[in-house]
Amino acid sequence: MLFDLTFIVALVVVVTIHEFSHAFVAYKLGDPTAKIAGRVTLNPLAHLDLVGTIMLFLIHIGWGKPVPVNPLYFRKPKRDEALTALAGPFSNLVLALVLVLPIKYLSGYMGSTVTDIVGTVLDVSILLFVFNMIPLPPLDGSKIIGFFIPGRYQRAYRNFLYDGVKYFVIFLLFDQFVLLSIFQFSILQLFIGTTFTFIKSLLFLGT
Questions:
Q1: How far is the C-alpha of 137 from the C-alpha of 93, rounded, in Å?
Q2: Which residues are within 8 A (CB) of 78 and not within 5 positions of it... i.e. 6 or more apart?
Q3: Staple 164 to which of 92, 137, 192, 195, CB 3.0 to 4.6 Å?
Q4: What is the Cα Rg of the chain in Å?
Q5: Which DSSP state fits 198?
C-alpha cells in the first residue's frame, strides 16, 4: 500500500475513530480524564501523535496519541479497563464491516476515486484492528487480556505491561531492519498479512 494522499486520508480517519472510541467509552464508564484532555472528539488533531506518524513512514508501523485513562474512576476497574482498550480495535472492525457493503454492492456506481478511498479506509481499518489486537504492550490487546488474568497474577501482569514495551520496540526494529532488510522475511508482516486476508475474506463472505 503506497503512502499516497488516499492512504494518508484513510489513516487519519481510522486513527481518529480508533482513539475517539477509547476516549468515549472511558468517559461513559466513569473516567473523565480523556474528556478533560479534549480527547472525546472527532478532531484528528487531538489524536495524531508526531512520533507515531514518523515511525509509520520509517518502519510502516505507527500509532496515535495514547488516550489518558485513570482506572480509579471505573466502577469495575478490571472489566472497564479491558472494555476501554477493546473499544478502539472494535470500532475499526465495525467501520470495516460498514464499508464492505458499498464496496461489495455499490462500487459500480461510486466511481473509481471514491471506490479507492473507501477501499483504502476499509483496508487500513482491518490492519489497525489486527495490529492492535496483538497481546503485547503497548498495544490494546495487552490490556484486553488483563480481564482474564487471575488476581494473584495481577502484579506480574502489570510488570509485563510496563517492561514489555521496550522488548516490543526492539522486536519491531529487529523484524523490520534485520529480518526484512537482510532476509526479506518479516514475522510481523506474515502474521498481519495472513490475518488481514482472513478477516477481509470473512467480512465479504458474511455480507
A1: 20
A2: 146, 147
A3: 137
A4: 18
A5: H
Place of cell 486476508: 197
Write the DSSP string, 164-181. Answer: HHHHHHHHHHHIIIIIIH
Number of domains comprising the chain: 1
> Over the stretch 55-91, which tens digit does the pLDDT of each residue have?
666 666 667 789 999 999 999 999 999 999 999 999 9
Residues 6+ apart with CB under 8 A from 24: 40, 87
Provide the domain limits for residue 108: 5-205
Residues in Cβ contact with 159 at an 8 Å cutoff, skipping those fewer than 6 apart: none
Q: What average pLDDT does the structure give for the chain?
A: 92
The residues annotated with a catalytic role in the active site are: 19
Inform me whether the pLDDT recorded for 130 exceeds 70: yes
pLDDT of the residue at 176: 84
Using the structure block, give the residue that is written with the C-alpha cell 467501520.
95
pLDDT at 58: 67
Give the span between the Cα atoms of 60 and 40, in whole angstroms.
27
